[in-house]
Design a protein that fits this description.
Elements lengths: L1 H33 L10 E4 L4 E2 L2 E2 L1 H15 L6 E3 L11 H11 L7 E3 L5 H14 L4 E5 L2 H13 L3 E4 L12 H18 L1 H13 L2
Helix pairs in contact: 1-5, 1-6, 2-3, 5-6, 6-7
């Protein structure tokens, strides 16, 4: 009797593990494919996701995203650029503010820039949602690194936007161990789709809120 129960339990565990492997493998493929899609559609705004800044200077990764947004803006693909990203303790400027200064320095009128904030991807979108709504914006071209594009679009969609992909070409992150980024995204997307990206954001930023 005990052996039979153990065999059933082992089979059940095996099925669960197989399902999880297939689920996360499929998620990885979806993330990889989305990171290589480039929309040809125009939109009402360009949504740039924040990443590190060095003082008042964009990091190479952030500059690559801003260059991509500038290319889209100059090509007339969207009339507005929304920039996001907060700051860490000790930083003088937010990533969004550094982005605003950069864009203005490259000829984008301040009136065409929406400045947000946020400590993670969910908060990035939430920080500009009100201003985008004020401008009656629903469609956005999402600009971020290829490995982050799927989650960025999923979160933008979850908050009522209609996102189109425009991942950064030749992102500086190719110099690093990309498997770490794709593994992180696969886990976060896989879990986020089950429990909800909003809840995942609350969990991931809880240590920040407690300080």
């Amino acid at each position: 009797m005990i052996r039979r129960i153990l065999r059933v339990a082992a089979k059940t565990l095996g099925v669960i593990l197989a399902v999880l492997i297939i689920y996360f493998a499929t998620t990885f493929v979806q993330i990889w494919m989305r990171g290589h899609e480039h929309t040809t559609k125009d939109a009402q705004a360009i949504l740039v996701f924040g990443t590190a800044a060095y003082g008042a200077v964009p990091s190479p990764e952030l500059k690559a995203r801003l260059d991509q947004a500038l290319h889209l803006y100059d090509a007339g693909r969207a009339p507005l650029i929304a920039v996001t990203g907060g700051k860490l303790t000790g930083d003088a400027y937010t990533e969004a503010h550094v982005s605003v200064v950069f864009l203005e320095g490259h000829g984008v009128p301040r009136a065409d820039i929406i400045e947000g904030g946020g400590a993670d991807t969910w908060q990035n979108v939430a920080s500009v949602l009100g201003a985008l709504s004020h401008h009656h914006v629903r469609t956005v071209i999402t600009v971020t690194d290829p490995f982050h594009e799927y989650r960025a679009m999923a979160i933008a969609s979850a908050q009522g936007l209609d996102p189109y992909p425009s991942p950064v070409r030749n992102s500086p992150t190719i110099k690093y161990e990309l498997w770490r980024f794709y593994l992180k995204e696969t886990l976060e997307v896989g879990v986020g789709r089950i429990i909800g990206f909003h809840l995942l954001s609350e969990w991931s930023t809880a240590p920040l809120k407690s300080h």
